[in-house]
């Protein structure tokens, strides 16, 4: 085993070292998970439901501890981190109802009885990114466990601590230790072994489109199931008939939340040309008002970027001659701080086309509804977006025309555990959350029982 060093992104101090799982360690974990899964699937549905509720209760009792860990490891503001830990509890609670409700169908046929069963897949591999370690892990493991599977989670190299703790809480809550295992390690080792191991029957991957494409290609060799949640370059479309004050006041929070390290970040603000100047006047104080600072402080709205190398990547999008309209504040001194930054580039600029994954937003004018839709869709991504208009017909037309999986009208809401989440085009494949997520961790088995004459 090798160890990796974790750095607190707000202080640049060494936080902890974490052992990395080897290929042999993954193989051993898969073998144990396979055995545990059979026992788990055989349990009475009510007993599986009770076990998931106990797991949720254990998380609930440790929300503050998990939140503090995320502040230290990822630099998330304490308010956000507390919500994220509570979200783990809520998602577990939501899917604890699944074991007793995952019913198949009885289909009328001649000569017998036809029944479908939702059979678990077996062992599931969940690979998570560093931007939302807790929510993204639970979106995979909760419905997968609820549908009768075993789960192995590989957290991102930089941010494994909360996932490791959640794995311990599962065992403390009474889940079989081999059923749900957290395997910290490298993507090129643990992640790739999930893809190549024949007993891992499905991969839930959240991360970059580049690595997701590779995971999908590897999975194809075994016709392995995949759910992919990938990158985004979402549009916030502001029409001239909306509440412009509200659109401008909320726009920073639609992109700078989690320091812009959010797959749903509305990183392109498209503004109707006749209200563009007024919108920019209103946006400036809103951007300068974002409270950037110590993530442990309750008043902080935006913390640092996650790592030095990520800071360098974000900074490369704002060179000295960048078309900066205005910027917010950021602390100086140690820490990977980057101020909220508003650019006014040309439509062809790489800041308009590429996912920056930091607190940098491009504002572009558009002429009319058709131009807005064309501009919003001019990207290989299709994850989320917002539409600001007080015209109901326009809201319906535009929300149907924008090619994205998660849209909100007159708000920036993307994620609720009881509604489906996922991307169009190269933003992903499949859907997480919502009532149907457990079905994506099952195979439908159809059985015909011939009935003889009496
Ligand atoms: P990444 O693709 O670099 O890594 C994601 C995970 O994959 C990590 O755990 C990494 O170790 C692992 N990995 C790396 N190489 C691998 C390989 N060859 N095989 C298997 N696993 C491998 O992404 P990141 O930088 O951690 O996260 C940022 C990206 O994630 C952004 O593009 C963002 O948009 C995306 N994201 C998408 C969603 C969504 O729901 N659509 C949510 C959050 C983040």
TrEMBL record:
Please name one Pfam family that this protein belongs to.
Answer: Aldedh
Ordered alphabetically, the record's keywords are: Oxidoreductase
Active-site residue list: 229
Which domain of life does the protein's organism represent? Bacteria
One Gene Ontology term of the molecular function aspect: oxidoreductase activity, acting on the aldehyde or oxo group of donors, NAD or NADP as acceptor
Q: Which residues form the Aldehyde dehydrogenase domain?
A: 5-447
Read off the InterPro entries from this record: Ald_DH/histidinol_DH (IPR016161), Ald_DH_C (IPR016163), Ald_DH_CS_CYS (IPR016160), Ald_DH_CS_GLU (IPR029510), Ald_DH_N (IPR016162), Aldehyde_DH_dom (IPR015590)
Which SUPFAM superfamilies did the record assign?
Answer: ALDH-like
Family named by the database record? Belongs to the aldehyde dehydrogenase family.
Q: What is this protein called?
A: Aldehyde dehydrogenase
